[in-house]
UniProtKB/TrEMBL annotation:
Component of the cytosolic iron-sulfur (Fe/S) protein assembly machinery. Required for maturation of extramitochondrial Fe/S proteins. It comes from Trichinella pseudospiralis. Belongs to the NARF family. InterPro entries: Cytosolic_Fe-S_CAF, Fe_hydrogenase, Fe_hydrogenase_lsu_C. This is Cytosolic Fe-S cluster assembly factor NARFL. Gene3D superfamilies: 3.40.50.1780, Fe-only Hydrogenase (Larger Subunit), Chain L, domain 3.
Length: 496
């Protein structure tokens, strides 16, 4: 069957190479001159200049450029993550090994890898191992490459959960418990730990890498005041490594390489935010982010089967001399995305109304990716929370907020349908049951309440000045977001 030439499309894809069509203006040196300035040139000067060849600097688009831009409509993440892949990781390992051969003790360095629990569950399912054995074997493999410290980011999630819960309690008291406002409209506190978000606007596919990026670029004036200022576990692990470990081990932050293994490609964008640099500006808090599938590529390239590695390594190196039960792995209650709603719900019920909640009852709405939970006491709804996963549900949430019809006080937002366990960077199985296996493995660990973690007080005292409300804690555990103004030419630079 032949197609009409008017409708046949070849090489159809949504890749747009970096060029002058990029929404971010890329100007050569000649454009910096004042266009309104009048110049007088004689004929000889004109002829001379016309014969000269001018070599322009090559154009490059970095992650920082894309994050600072008003938004690009390409979904080709290869444009953005060229320097965030397996090759760069192996290159970093090689450079680190070579550096250690020639540097003096005074300029010693450190290589740290932080592993997310979602990635660990995906790898465990791929190799048919338990999560405990997987973590230990991962540490063995990484140390065989030259990595010094392996971290489980669950420790960082303790701080993220506690800080988010305290933030909500303050938010609720200010806006609802002690408020004199008669408005019936509710403005929810929205988690900002997920950078991934795909949203279609109007008739064009406007791709904005990350929920946070989308909020800053598209609905900033409305959403940013509602976004939680608490960092994600990855970002907190970054500040821990480049601040606490740096000081404790007497190593300069720029001499520490910190790599994370995450379930989502958009975590690369989060790590590239300008806010996530060390205090002295010498390095990023997270130097490189690998997705779970990218790390699997490294294992395959090295012909390394995790089953063949020893499982005797300790799974979590917090580098504390008096660590309590460092060999134990644990999880948090609630969703596979971190259990933010679960913990905030119970914490707020106790702090605000002195109610002890043993379990949270979820009510699914139109689909499993939008679930609600209400705290009801004496036939009165005290607060109303929701899990909101997937771009369609988040789009509806934003519409309700804009219209002043939102009924939620707190929303756990994740861009991926089914949350982080189904992140775009996870290892894809050959059957539909693989996601269920990953979820079962993720929830197979014993759970611990963040405030009951044995090492919490130890780290708060040593790292954060003794309190989660300290100035140091504010810098290490929180961040700021700001609206990014869109360029006027944004909608006119599209090429299909």
């Amino acid at each position: 069957m032949s197609f009409s030439g008017t409708v046949r499309l070849t090489d159809l894809n949504d890749f747009i190479a970096p060029s002058q069509n990029c929404i971010k203006p890329i100007l050569d040196e000649r454009s910096t001159a004042n266009q309104s300035e009048r110049m007088r040139l004689d004929r000889d000067e004109i002829n001379k200049s016309s014969q000269e060849k001018r070599i322009l600097k090559p154009v490059s688009v970095t992650l920082d450029d894309c994050l600072a831009c008003s938004g690009c409509i390409t979904s080709a993440e290869t444009v953005l993550i060229e320097q965030q892949g397996p090759k760069e990781f192996l290159k970093m390992i090689e450079e680190f090994s070579n550096d250690n051969k020639v540097i003096s003790k005074e300029t010693k360095s450190l290589f740290v890898v932080s592993i997310s629990p979602q990635s660990r569950a995906s790898l465990a399912a791929s190799y048919n191992l338990t999560v405990e054995v997987t973590q230990r074997k991962l540490c063995t493999f990484l140390r065989s490459l030259g990595v010094n410290v392996c971290l489980d980011t669950t420790f960082a999630r303790n701080f993220s959960l506690l800080a988010t819960a305290e933030e909500f309690v303050d938010y609720y008291r200010k806006n609802y418990l002690n408020s004199t406002s008669t408005s019936l409209s509710i403005s929810p506190l929205i988690t900002a730990i997920c950078p991934g978000f795909l949203l279609y606007i109007s008739l064009i596919a406007f791709f904005s890498f990350g929920w946070v990026c989308y909020a800053e670029k598209s609905v900033g004036d409305i959403v940013i005041p509602l976004m939680s200022k608490v960092r994600s576990p990855q970002a907190i692990a970054g500040s821990f490594v480049k601040d606490y470990l740096s000081q404790m081990m007497n190593i300069l932050p720029n001499r520490i390489r910190h790599v994370t293994i995450m379930p989502c490609f958009d975590k690369k964008l989060e790590a590239s935010r300008s806010a996530f640099f060390t205090d002295d500006g010498s390095s990023r808090e997270v130097d490189l982010v690998l997705s779970t599938s990218q790390f699997k590529e490294i294992l395959d390239e090295k012909c390394a089967d995790l089953k063949n590695f020893d499982s005797n390594e300790q799974p979590n190196d917090l580098c504390l001399s008096d660590i309590v039960d460092e060999n134990a792995l644990y999880n948090h209650e609630g969703s596979g995305s971190g259990g933010y709603l679960e913990f905030v719900f119970k914490y707020a019920a106790k702090e605000l109304f002195n109610l002890d909640i043993s379990s949270v009852e979820y009510v699914a709405q139109r689909n499993k990716d939008i679930q609600e939970a209400r705290l009801i006491h004496d036939n009165k709804v005290l607060f109303h929370m929701a899990l909101c996963y997937g771009f369609r549900n988040i789009q509806n949430l934003i519409r309700k907020i804009r219209a002043g019809k939102c009924a939620y006080h707190f929303v756990e937002v994740m861009a991926c349908p089914s949350g982080c366990l189904n992140g775009g960077g996870q290892i894809r199985g050959i059957d539909k049951m693989s996601n269920n296996v990953v979820e079962q493995l993720y929830h197979s660990l014993p759970t611990v309440q963040p405030g009951e973690w044995p090492n919490l007080k130890l780290l708060i005292n040593r790292w954060l000045g003794g309190s989660l409300q300290s100035e140091k804690a504010n810098r290490m555990l929180k961040t700021q977001y700001q609206a990014v103004k869109s360029t006027k030419s944004m909608r006119f630079n599209l090429q299909w």
